[in-house]
Amino acid sequence: MVNLALPVWAAVVLLGAALVAAFLPGRPRAALVQNVGTRSRDDMMNDLVFSMDSPKATLATVGGKGENLIQLTRAGFPVPPGFLISTAAYRKFVQANDLQRQIVALARSGAGTDYEAASADIRGLFERGSMPPEVAAAVQQAHAALRSGVEAPCPVAVRCSECHCSEPECGARGEESPMAVRSSATAEDLPGASFAGQQETFLNIASEQEVLQAVKRCWSSLWTPRALVYRARQEIEPDTVSLAVVVQKMVDASAAGVLFTANPLTGARDEVVIDAAWGLGEAVVSGLVTPDHITADKTTGEVKEMEVADKAFLTAPTAGGTNERAVEADRRGSAVLDAARVAELVRLGRAVEAHYRMPQDIEWCLADGRLWIVQSRPVTTLPPEPVRWDSPVPGAKWMNDLQAAEWATEPLSPLGATTTFAAMVTARQRKFRMQKEPWYVLINSWLYIRADFRILTTVARCMWWVGRLAAGTMDRHRLVRRTWPPRLAVLDSLEKLELANLSDADLHARAVRLLRELGWWWWEVTWGSAVTIMCEQLIGKLGVPHLTDPVVLFRGNDSLLLDAGRALRHAADSGETNAYLARFGHFVESADPLHPTLRESPELLDQYLEMARYSQTGPDERLARSRRERIEAEGHVGALSGMRRRVAHRIIKAGQSNAAHVDDSVFHFQRVLALLRATYLEIGQRLARTGAVEGAEDVFYLKRRELTRPEAQMASRVAHRRELCERHKKLAPPPFIPPRSDPAWGRDRTLRLFSSLMGETVIRRGTQEREGRRVLVGTPGSPGRVRGIARLITGPEDFRRFQPGDVLVAHATTPVWTPLFNIASAAVTEVGGNFSHAAIVAREFGIPLVNGALDATRDIVDGTPVLVDGSAGVVEP
Prior knowledge:
Residues 802-873 form the PEP-utilising enzyme mobile domain. It comes from Streptomyces chiangmaiensis. Pfam families: PEP-utilizers, PPDK_N. Residues 61-161, 173-383 form the Pyruvate phosphate dikinase AMP/ATP-binding domain. By secondary structure, the chain is α+β, with helices and mostly antiparallel strands. The chain contains 30 helices and 26 strands. Helix 5 (115-128) crosses helix 9 and helix 17 (504-542) runs antiparallel to helix 22. 44% of the residues lie in helices and 15% in strands. The chain has 4 domains: 1-240, Dna Ligase, domain 1; 251-388, D-amino Acid Aminotransferase, Chain A, domain 1 (2-Layer Sandwich), CATH 3.30.470.20; 403-729, no CATH class; 765-876, 3-Layer(bba) Sandwich (Glucose Oxidase, domain 1), CATH 3.50.30.
């Protein structure tokens, strides 16, 4: 509505702008009016404090959050009124108290050693510091004006019910309402840095003195342990940073949440995703509560999918701050937003996105039936184009985290999909036809395994296993002694051949032979792991007194992978690496031949050696510890009597004989992978010489049939496929297709059997709410409980970022990752079971592991502290 106290010219301009806005399509009326008629108070303030509509403020002066709020306010969006305390005020406080030299010295002294102590000392300096009179006066003047309601008349010439502004009718002016005091970092919300959330927020601050104290605390939060660690990782010097502060009238929200104007998981630009919970937004942002999760159509606002969560707690204002309290029983399971409110939020989000001209991550709240925006930032992690995760087989169900996926750390190359992974999946399925055909597919280049099972085949095979176990005929040692020597002789001979001397026909025949060998060794890995897991579960069901962890019964085996650890330790101490590479240089990151071997990666070898020098214990000490634990566990089993004892001994004998050869199977499996990569590179070189492709590495973007029958225009096809693979790397593949909420999963009669065989946690994992806390649930992989800084590692190129004591967070690990476990305090993976590489190595090194934690790399923020409970299979923020 028009403010009658305005001059006539201002009223005319305001009315004219409103009329123009009404007749211009495609732009929100609010976004077309730049607070015309609002008297800027910058002339009443110096460079220490800026008004919320200031045209003078910049990123350098008010930080990322402050600059975004100014843009939203000037565009007429419903932002709670307030003011901004600039970085100049921060620097004046530091200068007046002579803190800069002390801050820099303390920050640098704590780097890599004791960030907690350095932070405590720096924050103590701020606590004891005196607020400069000119800063205090500027803040007090702005605070008084805000509380008196002088600050902001209606920003747009429309009804208050439409703009939700700060007019008296909206209940936001003329009252002595409490304040929200928020930090605004100068690098916050930039695409190249993730400072958002590093500093602190203080809510429900009432008096002037409390506001000034909260401002000091915000400034000091620039030096929290988390912020110190993050800047050290990013190599940002401590003398280059400063902090601005946002002070706003606090909205006493009945509900709040986050809105994405594009689907952050699929990249769909035609969808809006909303998280909503009761009370203040801190409950959602801090992860205190699992919010309702809503997907809506961006054009119509219609709800496409709504998951209503059990919202046990909310954040509510109290005198001088906030606290968490229980939600009333009748509201815990109720939807926070109805369809009409969702549609209203979608319209608001669409208008904000139109203003910024890019997808936005918006923090919103609802108070007295009106929506407010408290922050908006660009979504910088969206896939480059909308992606659908649909089954290529109508009615089929798929999973991306069965055993083969542990070796698929990235989207598969066309060659890897049609050679190595085809051979692996086929070899397993031919031996055990448990799943329906097709056994696997690529969806957006990510590997998915069929999750529809043949019930009769599964039951029959399980009965066959049990029968063999009862008969005592599952001794793996005898089978290995009989079948491995001729296979190893083949590998030895294949390794000695000079590829350059082979004809094209012989080279392709070699690739075919190697794929057969790969399938054979993969079945050895699969069978040994499966029998060991089965025996571990059966021992657990026997209820052996005092046996808390049945897995220790099947550990303590010497192996070629332990030999690799010994050789690496020797190479690190002596500086001689040739012998190590000669025997272990075939280690690979993935079963996709696209990925280089350790022998081809001198930089990775340097990182290996560096991490080996950090290690406190060697392979032999870890092996001895595992054997002591196994002997102790065997003693508990030996205390059984009668049939239980005989059954337990049969189970242990079978499990131990299979577990003893799993690591060596993996070792030889990798030998074949390295030979295949070399063979395909030789084929690629020959294709490049004929002009079919530009370089040898292009061969990995061809399909198997194209190796022998190259077609025209291969170069453009390779370029397109390479670009597609790079785009698909940025996707977050869902663990199940269709999603677990689809009724098809509930109707699956084999799902209960599958869950009983593999464990219910294979299905029920991911982010959940437990006892009022938002946690990430996986499966227990290695016992223990550790808090550390999460470090998201996507591949060997990230290894150098990993520091001693970090928590390793990864999609999956393979033996090439082993040195990281030397220095990790704990680990979290999205893929794997009790005999995955991560589980075996974590137990060997004695560090906690949670594996199979769906969406860990998406839900855990790099550089933030997490608590890893490997015994319970839970990760807490």
